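[step 3/7] inverse_fold.run input=structure_tokens len=273
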């Protein structure tokens, strides 16, 4: 068994899994991802941040528009305030660095203004989506780069619980929205995180046309793989992955404040036509 076989087994929660012959160091690196929620206080250096942002900027960007930005937050008070916005997540306070990834249409507004040209397209949902996608692609490149430097991370979607408050804390101009945060730092190895299984590939990979039918059996085995994972981690999770996921989409109250996202986006200068 190779190291990549072991990664495949962990990634799919399947002791019989074997890696395909198509192999690379990058694939091994990506398969080893784990969200980390316990950090040592050791800082992330400016050199590391520069390298991580260069990796982020190397992601593809829609029409070369660069409709994203990122705010690096190290100040303990600002981190604590962001942690509260994100539902009191302790790791936002504890991680030495919080990167807040922004869908940023304010720069294009200024660019158009500088050229004395109209920018009415910025008011359409399409442009908001362009900016959010750009931010996500940049962030995931940053995540992979950070992990390659021995750092760890966890995304913080909780940053969307109170968007106007986050915008105020970060001094965001109109047409800028914090899509998610990202805790960065060195893992506290006394509280290690494990590789979390993903569903078998037929759940996500379709050939030629989409199939609902092919997903039922592998989703049932994913429930079992996640049950084994929770047990191995000593996590007292009630119900299966399916039940847990169903609860997450049960209604507006499950959205932890994000049910008013359209209103918040309007307040932040996105017309979303
Ligand atoms: C956009 C996004 C937002 C997330 N928000 C949070 C969050 O607010 N808090 C948290 O602890 N984890 C958050 N996560 C981490 C996910 O829970 C995690 O990626 C998922 O459970 C899979 O685990 P893994 O990353 O360890 O493989 C987020 C992940 C993504 C992609």
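[step 3/7] decode complete -> sequence:
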């Amino acid at each position: 068994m190779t190291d990549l076989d072991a990664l495949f087994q962990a990634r799919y929660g399947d002791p019989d899994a074997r890696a395909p012959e198509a192999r690379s160091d990058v694939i091994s690196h990506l398969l080893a991802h784990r969200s980390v929620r316990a950090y040592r206080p050791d800082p992330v250096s400016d050199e590391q941040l520069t390298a991580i942002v260069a990796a982020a900027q190397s992601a593809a960007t829609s029409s070369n528009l660069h409709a994203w930005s990122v705010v690096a937050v190290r100040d303990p008070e600002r981190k604590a305030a962001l942690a509260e916005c994100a539902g009191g997540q302790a790791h936002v306070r504890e991680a030495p660095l919080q990167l807040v990834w922004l869908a940023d249409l304010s720069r294009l507004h200024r660019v158009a203004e500088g050229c004395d040209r109209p920018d009415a397209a910025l008011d359409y949902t399409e442009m908001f989506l362009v900016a959010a996608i750009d931010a996500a692609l940049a962030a995931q490149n940053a995540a992979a780069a950070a992990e390659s430097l021995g750092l760890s991370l966890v995304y913080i979607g909780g940053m969307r619980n109170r968007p106007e408050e986050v915008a105020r804390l970060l001094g965001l101009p109109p047409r800028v929205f914090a899509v998610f945060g990202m805790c960065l730092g060195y893992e506290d190895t006394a509280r290690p995180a494990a590789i979390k299984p993903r569903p078998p590939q037929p759940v996500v990979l379709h050939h030629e046309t989409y199939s609902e039918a092919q997903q039922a059996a592998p989703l049932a085995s994913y429930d079992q793989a996640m049950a084994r994972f929770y047990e191995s981690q000593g996590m007292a999770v009630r119900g299966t992955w399916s039940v847990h996921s169903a609860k997450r989409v049960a209604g507006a109250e499950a959205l932890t404040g994000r049910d008013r996202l359209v209103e918040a986006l309007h307040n932040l200068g996105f017309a979303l036509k």
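[step 4/7] annotate
The mean pLDDT is 97.
The longest helix spans residues 125-148.
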